[in-house]
Amino acid sequence: MPRIVVDVMPKPEILDPQGKAIVGALPRLGFTDFVSVRQGKRFELEVEGEVTDEILAKARDAAETLLSNPVIEDVVNIQVVEA
């Protein structure tokens, strides 16, 4: 069954306290090469049958109206992943 993967990230101007907590913890765990972290969300929408342009448009609409908060988040990626 094919899946549509939607990635949502906080807008650049929005503070990301989870990302700040992660970047603070990384050096304590021995990961010293990273200076910034932004945490986002990933959604996987399974589709029966073929993923058409119409279904992708519906996925984008769902991503922009339900899966993300357009005031503070951007939909950064929508892609089809075969099963």
From TrEMBL:
Pathway the protein contributes to: Purine metabolism; IMP biosynthesis via de novo pathway; 5-amino-1-(5-phospho-D-ribosyl)imidazole from N(2)-formyl-N(1)-(5-phospho-D-ribosyl)glycinamide: step 1/2
A GO molecular-function descriptor: ATP binding
BP terms from Gene Ontology: 'de novo' IMP biosynthetic process
Class of this enzyme: ligase
Keywords, alphabetical: ATP-binding, Cytoplasm, Ligase, Nucleotide-binding, Purine biosynthesis
Keyword Glycoprotein in record: no
Record's catalysed reaction(s): N(2)-formyl-N(1)-(5-phospho-beta-D-ribosyl)glycinamide + L-glutamine + ATP + H2O = 2-formamido-N(1)-(5-O-phospho-beta-D-ribosyl)acetamidine + L-glutamate + ADP + phosphate + H(+)
Cellular localization per UniProt: Cytoplasm
UniProt xrefs under SUPFAM superfamilies: PurS-like
GO cellular component assignments: cytoplasm
Taxonomic superkingdom: Bacteria
The protein's Enzyme Commission number: 6.3.5.3
InterPro entries: PurS, PurS-like_sf
Main location as per UniProt: cytoplasm
Tagged with keyword Lipid biosynthesis: no
Matching Pfam families: PurS
Family: Belongs to the PurS family.
Subunit structure: Part of the FGAM synthase complex composed of 1 PurL, 1 PurQ and 2 PurS subunits.
Function of the protein: Part of the phosphoribosylformylglycinamidine synthase complex involved in the purines biosynthetic pathway. Catalyzes the ATP-dependent conversion of formylglycinamide ribonucleotide (FGAR) and glutamine to yield formylglycinamidine ribonucleotide (FGAM) and glutamate. The FGAM synthase complex is composed of three subunits. PurQ produces an ammonia molecule by converting glutamine to glutamate. PurL transfers the ammonia molecule to FGAR to form FGAM in an ATP-dependent manner.
HAMAP family: PurS
Name this protein carries in UniProt: Phosphoribosylformylglycinamidine synthase subunit PurS
Organism for this UniProt entry: Arthrobacter woluwensis
